[in-house]
Design brief:
It comes from Monosporascus ibericus. GO terms for molecular function: sodium:proton antiporter activity. This is Cation/H+ exchanger transmembrane domain-containing protein. It is a multi-pass membrane protein. This protein has 16 helices and no strands. The protein is an all-alpha fold. It folds into 2 domains: about 120 residues, no CATH class; about 160 residues, no CATH class. Helix 3 packs antiparallel against helix 5 and helix 10 runs antiparallel to helix 11. About 20% of the residues are buried.
């Protein structure tokens, strides 16, 4: 269950690239030209090259690290920070090549840890969890500093629409498909797990990243945008940031609310709550909630 949630989160962030550019190309070019550019620019160059490059870098760096550790050329401290170095290297080189760095990092991470050697070497390491907390704190500081408050004053977007968009997206983005299709997903055993996976679909860094791509793409032609493109450029950042904030509030408060309700239920109905708690524990429901919150970053 945890593995499929983690895999879905990474793949979802990386493979959002082609769907984004399909809409952008259709807004600028005729249908035939848009599909053509979408195939050879987005799929063949951005996506396929990102996958191949990420796999190559992940395999190369994994082989180098294992050989260095085998011959005692690298100490434990060097091994611990190696994954961060690989990620920074990929971000820089993918930026120079103009390909999807999110997808490349996802593929490289899978190839890098494919034989589980890196996890076994660093499983007693506290650096990774420390970096996770540090990056989470940095993201929240960045989100607060970059909130586009001035962009919320749009004539064609009433304030209540941001709330409706955020609520509808959080409800219908994942939950209905998983409730319908969970029977054909082997890792999802029952309706409760399907509802859990559908509920926990946090929206975070990747959404802000893609919003920046949209704005940058549209600003390449200043003064030449159509009315619909100009509206898209003006609305994309406030809408996406609103959804991200809503996701943080909804998914971030789930654990405190669950603990509060659990405390109340245990005081009022101790025997009934004990049975429910044991049932949840059997399905690792509580552990899954805690793990899913980590996907906010």
């Amino acid at each position: 269950m945890r593995l499929i949630i983690s895999a879905e989160a990474g793949a979802n962030d990386g493979f959002g690239y082609p769907y984004l550019f399909l809409a952008l190309y259709l807004s600028r070019y005729a249908t035939g030209a848009a599909i053509g550019r979408w195939v050879y620019e987005t799929w063949l160059y951005d996506v396929v090259l990102s996958v191949l490059y990420g796999a190559f870098v992940g395999y190369l760096f994994s082989t180098i690290l294992q050989q260095a550790e085998k011959h005692s050329f690298a100490d434990l401290e060097s091994v611990q920070v190696y994954g961060i170095v690989v990620a920074i290297f990929l971000l820089g080189t993918c930026g120079m090549l103009g390909i999807d760095d999110l997808l490349a990092c996802f593929v490289a991470g899978n190839v890098f840890t494919w034989n589980d050697w890196f996890r076994q070497v660093t499983q007693e390491d506290a650096l990774q969890s420390t970096m996770d907390y540090l990056l989470n704190a940095t993201f929240f500081a960045f989100l607060g500093a970059m909130m586009p408050w001035q962009d919320y004053k749009l004539e064609f977007m009433a304030s209540w629409r941001y709330i409706v968009i955020a609520v509808c997206l959080l409800i219908f983005k994942r939950l209905p498909p998983l409730l319908v299709l969970y029977r054909i997903i082997p890792q999802v055993r029952n309706l409760k797990e399907a509802a859990f996976m559908g509920y926990f679909g946090p929206v975070g860094v990747a959404a802000i990243y893609y919003a920046g791509i949209v704005v940058r793409y549209l600003e390449e032609r200043p003064g030449e945008l159509s009315q619909s493109e100009e509206r898209l450029r003006s609305a994309v950042r406030p809408v996406i940031y609103s959804v991200v904030v809503a996701s943080i509030i909804v998914h971030g408060l789930s654990i405190p609310l669950y603990k509060h309700v659990s405390r109340i239920c245990s005081q009022g109905y101790p025997s009934r709550f004990a049975d429910a708690k044991s049932a949840f524990a059997d399905d690792a429901f509580v552990d899954q909630i805690g793990f899913a919150l980590l996907l906010l970053d």
